């Protein structure tokens, strides 16, 4: 067993995990599976990390999922003008807005408190 340093190492580890999948914990194969899973987790965290979602994009995605319009957000965010300011990234989300979006749309508060990415000009 060795550290995973390259994509080839990663691919080989993933193939071995597939052959070991379902091994009982506490057995030599189960222990090997646990160690490989840990090594894979470390490699993926370093090399395959995903960016956290942008709060505005998360709101738009949830709206699309639920068939909502901007008008549906008026009781959550505020007036049409305020919604436009938020969506155009000219105004940040307030704590109250974050709470309401979290409660009513089920968007993670952790996502909503992140700063919104400024769109490239």
TrEMBL record:
Span of domain HTH cro/C1-type: 59-112
Protein name: HTH-type transcriptional regulator/antitoxin HigA
GO molecular function: core promoter sequence-specific DNA binding
Gene3D superfamilies: lambda repressor-like DNA-binding domains
Membrane-spanning intervals of the chain: none
Cross-referenced InterPro entries: Antitox_HigA (IPR039060), Cro/C1-type_HTH (IPR001387), Lambda_DNA-bd_dom_sf (IPR010982)
Listed GO biological process terms: regulation of DNA-templated transcription
């Amino acid at each position: 067993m060795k550290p995973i340093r390259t994509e080839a190492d990663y691919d080989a580890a993933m193939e071995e995990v597939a052959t070991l999948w379902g091994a009982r914990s506490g057995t030599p194969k189960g222990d090997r599976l646990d160690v490989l899973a840990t090594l894979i987790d470390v490699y993926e965290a370093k090399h395959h990390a995903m960016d956290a979602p942008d709060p505005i994009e998360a709101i738009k995605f949830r709206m699309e999922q639920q068939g909502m319009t901007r008008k549906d957000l008026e009781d959550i965010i505020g007036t049409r003008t305020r919604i436009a300011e938020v969506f155009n990234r000219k105004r940040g989300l307030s704590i109250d807005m974050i709470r309401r979006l979290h409660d009513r749309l089920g968007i993670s508060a952790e996502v909503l408190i992140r700063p919104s990415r400024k769109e490239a000009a």
